[in-house]
């Protein structure tokens, strides 16, 4: 008679196999909340980073990416990493602007408007950002830049007078200030709520990347994209210092190498992404135009005001600007 194992026997056998595999090494699981959804370049890079760490530690360190603020709400991610509630996480730098002025380097209009100058600004700001993160018990792993931030409206914009009094989306302390200086009223809205905020009239305008416009299908609720390319903000991925130190040296190095790869991929990818997504906006029927000279002059003036205000906030800011302007 042929021996036919019953289902329970198969189940037990497979559990035993799993048990053996599991005991061959101790798998550590880390949780990584991220603010944006899976269609975003930063989330794709986070997934590749986690994959690389898993494969280069032979599965000993598994980073579980929780995208789209599904585990922790975006504004609470820095605190979750700081307190060790999670081991690492991704956050938009500008959102930490009220924690210390060095984080504001990320959202200052017309300070660095090309990808090359944004990289230069980042090298100038990085040591100060790392210092502040360290005080908060965190270490910087890598950054991912967003495409340059431009103006989305329901009306053509030739000068600021065309949007005066409108409700403008803000996503950080600096963008609230910018909205004030543009004579618009700032309203904080997180990315997933953008479409609804437009259709219910909570906001009339926003400044963000072509990518965020594409992800939120901006053509459904607005008509004009004025390509002011005002600043190039970034996300950072940070790790809790104690969690990192508990790892052996080899695993630490795997993480640092994967982080360096992620950083390089981000800066390389963002340039193409910016072009592709701007094209998609146009293809979907949004009127994409270059800003008028008048508009640029008005915005540059606001940028200069914001740089002055920012400079007065902390001596570290002077240091960043000095290095950046060298
Ligand atoms: N998208 C994110 C951050 C910057 C960007 O391009 C947002 O709009 O909140």
From TrEMBL:
Residues 1-26 form the signal peptide. Pfam families: DctP. Transmembrane segments: none annotated. GO terms for biological process: transmembrane transport. It comes from the Bacteria. Keywords: Signal. NCBIfam families: TRAP_S1. This is TRAP-type C4-dicarboxylate transport system, substrate-binding protein.
């Amino acid at each position: 008679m042929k021996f036919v194992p019953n289902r329970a026997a198969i189940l037990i056998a497979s559990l035993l196999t799993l048990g053996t595999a599991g005991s061959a090494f101790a798998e550590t699981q880390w949780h990584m909340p991220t603010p944006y959804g899976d269609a975003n370049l930063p989330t794709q890079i986070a997934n590749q980073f986690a994959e690389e760490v898993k494969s280069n530690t032979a599965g000993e360190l598994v980073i579980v990416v929780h995208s789209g603020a599904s585990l922790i709400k975006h504004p609470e991610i820095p605190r979750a990493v700081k307190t060790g509630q999670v081991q690492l996480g991704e956050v938009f730098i500008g959102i930490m602007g009220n924690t210390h002025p060095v984080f504001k380097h990320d959202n200052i209009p017309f300070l660095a408007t090309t990808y090359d100058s944004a990289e230069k600004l980042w090298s100038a700001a990085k040591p100060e950002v790392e210092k502040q993160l360290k005080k908060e018990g965190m270490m910087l792993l890598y950054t991912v830049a967003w495409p340059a931030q431009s103006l989305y409206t329901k009306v053509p914009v030739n000068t600021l007078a065309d949007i005066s009094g409108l409700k403008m989306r803000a996503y950080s302390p600096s963008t609230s200030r910018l909205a004030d200086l543009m004579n618009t009223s700032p309203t904080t809205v997180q990315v997933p709520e953008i479409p609804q905020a437009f259709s219910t009239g909570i906001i009339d305008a926003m400044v963000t990347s072509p990518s965020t416009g594409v992800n939120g299908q901006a053509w459904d609720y607005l008509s004009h994209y004025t390509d002011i390319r005002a600043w190039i903000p970034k996300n950072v991925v940070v790790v809790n210092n104690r969690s990192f130190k508990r790892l052996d040296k080899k695993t630490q190095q795997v993480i640092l190498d994967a982080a360096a790869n992620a950083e390089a991929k981000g800066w390389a990818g963002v340039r193409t992404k910016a072009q592709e997504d701007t094209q998609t906006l146009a293809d979907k029927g949004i009127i994409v135009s270059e800003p008028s000279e008048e508009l640029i002059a008005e915005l540059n003036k606001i940028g200069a005001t914001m740089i002055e205000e920012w400079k007065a906030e902390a001596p570290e800011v002077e240091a960043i600007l000095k290095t950046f302007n060298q």
